[in-house]
Amino acid sequence: MQSVVLSGREIRVKRGEGNVPVCEVCEVRTMPQTRTKLFAGPRLRQLRQRETLTQANLADMLDISPSYLNQLERNHRPVPHPLLQKLCERFDLTPAWFSNTKEAHTVQAMRETMADPVFKNASLPLAKMADAVHANPDLCAAFLTLYRAYKFEQERESDTLSPSPPLEPYETVGDWVQQHRNYFHELDCAAEKFYENLDLKNGLAEALKTYLLNQHGLHTQQDPALEEGGLVWRIDRNRRTILLPPDQPPESTLFYLAQIIGQRDHTRLISSILRREGPKEKNALELGRVYLGNYFAGALLLPYTRFLHAAQTMRYDIERLRRHFGTSFEQISHRLSTLQRPGMEGIPFYFLKLDIAGNILKSFSANRFSQARFGGPCPLWNIFRAFATPGQVQVQLSQTTDDSIYLNVARTVGHEGVTYIDRPRQIAIVLGCTISDAAKTVYADGLNLNDHRLVVPIGPGCRACVRDNCSHRSLPVSGRMLDTGSDARGVVPYRALPEKP
Fold it and tell me: Which residue ranges does the record assign to the HTH cro/C1-type domain (predicted)?
């Protein structure tokens, strides 16, 4: 039995069947001090379905009536704190598992959508949007789906060459991953189990190659022709060989080998997850399969218990973690955004990856942070400054329009071109946590977290941002009446009239 300390709790790691590490969380649960009402219907329903329980079964466990549980799941009633305590103890969860993170993202999406000029006569204050999401999240989700369909039809009418919405499957998968807080328990545990059974005496790369050779009869070989074809790996079934491009970073080779193992050994598990709860549309389903394959690879290279312990010991220093595990800055950052195992949570980070043109390539959030779905990101965000200082970490304290303050860590990632004619894609990522968690990271050192004068105000993109005094605004906020004034002129030549109460 080995013990490590995670988040002030003792985690006992013992060896179970098959020499697999089993984590026991030993803690005294403390409930939040705030007494705000907690509407957690979707999370309660997700928990019940995960445990394959009927409403009657769960109601009996909690010593409440099925009708009361039904009201809780439909968000008609808040979850009282004694019942929250009972749920956490019964299912080994922390109160944070039931937080309203998804609700905050839905409110932000509603806010952006209602900013469209098509709703110019529908004055709906933010408070009323929040009430609507509280009362009927499913109806609000249907409304957002309908709006996306409307936007697509508009775009198709203006561009007859686009027969189908190219980003819709990607958005569907993004929403699905977001609903799970970028954490998939079965797949994560399977990857951790696989790692613990490897013979690592010659390093992880050799262990993965040996496994593929012994279990699947696959050799590895370099093939320069892959780069010309735009491939990162290919399996030659006739020669029983995995072909890899030469001169690629070692961490990329590790990830690709882990991808192949996930594809070969865990297709049935991935298919089961997708069949049970994945996207239904075919293209979205296939993108979901790719995402889960990548998730398994990341979880194999950075096994949960070991990685969480190292992250907390090193105070989430990405560079130290990258060297310790022999992986890339991006791989470490993405893995940090997945540390949401019930009872063993890390800091809830948001993770975002975009290119130099501002196109969002990946976006996941385990906290309340929500990025704009329409229009470009805020130019005051430090992720754009990262492109001016390639390879250097940029740290920023920012405040969103809901007054939440985040610590943001941004840096460019990717590799340089191999030849002069190469055009490597310029990519940057940003990892962010709330200011309440900032002191747990090395990036807060030297910052005065109590002095908010230097906090940078960022918004969800100009179209939905309500700040009138921003000199970086590129266009007016949508859906609000404008006052251009005649006796005074501000930093922008228009101001949005206040929302009606």
Answer: 44-98
d(CA 73, CA 394): 42
pTM of the predicted protein model: 0.70
The owner of tokens 């907390």 is 312
Confidence band, pLDDT 50/70/90 cuts, at residue 366? confident
Looking at residue 165, its pLDDT comes to 44
Tokens of 74: 């439909």
The pLDDT value given to residue 105:
75
The full set of domain ranges for the chain reads: 40-91, 101-166, 174-301, 347-465, 468-501
Cβ atoms of residues 263 and 293 within 8 Å? yes
Q: Which amino acid is at 172?
A: T
- Contact at 8 Å (CB) between 436 and 496? no
* Residue 413 dihedral angles phi and psi, to the nearest 5°: -135, 180
By the 8 A CB rule, do 469 and 457 touch?
no
- Over residues 341-361, the pLDDT tens digits come to 988 999 999 999 999 888 888
Residues in the chain, overall count: 501
User: Which CATH code fits 40-91?
Assistant: 1.10.260.40
Q: Which fold has domain 174-301?
A: Arc Repressor Mutant, subunit A (1.10.10)
User: When comparing pLDDT for 488 and 184, which is higher?
Assistant: 184
Nearest to 308 by CA among 192, 438, 230: 192
Fold of 347-465: Beta-Lactamase (3.30.450)
Distance CA 501, CA 499 (A): 6
Average of per-residue pLDDT across 67-72: 90
Residue with tokens 């298919």: 271
310, two tokens: 């190292």
